[in-house]
Design a protein that fits this description.
Strand 3 and strand 4 form a beta hairpin. By secondary structure, this protein is of the alpha+beta class. It is built from four helices and six strands, in the order αββααβββαβ. The longest helix has 16 residues.
């Protein structure tokens, strides 16, 4: 059973949280694909991020970019449609959701929000073992407990071999 606290990022440093979750949940996990959000950094020192019209895709580089290309089928309309459906339903009933229709393959997503505006998805290939899902939830909760980053000296993400596209 999920709770809203597992998906709502209260920290003001939204972009730092997304970067850390990418590093801790996506990059080291074989089934981790990436993070998609509706925000981006205005400059390297921006820890909060700014809302934008286009999505930001932080996708692991593999299969010669095939997965990154396919993930772009989860476009802005599909992204916001997911959050709209989640808001209309019992959004606190699940931690992970399966997306099948928007992509050529099934993925598992973990939604993240900050207030009503900032939204993001941690994305994994299906299936993911229950043990790994619980570990991911633990990492998200751990990251939420950390104090916000205030410094403008923010570490650049993604790591080598990964790509960020707008």
């Amino acid at each position: 059973m999920a709770s809203k606290n597992r998906h709502e990022i209260k920290r003001k440093d939204w972009e730092v949280v997304l970067d850390q979750l990418y590093k801790r949940c996506i990059a080291p996990v074989a089934r981790g694909i990436g993070v998609i959000s509706n925000t981006s950094r205005e400059n390297p020192g921006d820890v909060e991020g700014e809302l934008q019209e286009e999505l930001t895709y932080r996708i692991k580089q593999r299969d010669h970019g095939r997965v990154a290309y396919q993930m772009r089928q989860l476009n802005t309309d599909a992204f916001y449609h997911f959050f709209k459906l989640r808001a209309q339903g019992n959004k606190d009933s699940e931690d992970f959701y399966r997306l099948k229709k928007q992509l050529p393959f099934e993925v598992l997503v973990y939604p993240l929000t900050q207030g009503l505006v900032k939204k993001g998805l941690l994305i994994f290939e299906c299936p993911v073992e229950s043990m790994h899902l619980q570990k991911i939830i633990g990492i998200v909760l751990d990251e939420m407990k950390k104090p916000a980053t205030i410094s403008a000296a923010v570490e650049k993400v993604p790591a080598d071999g990964d790509e960020v596209k707008k």
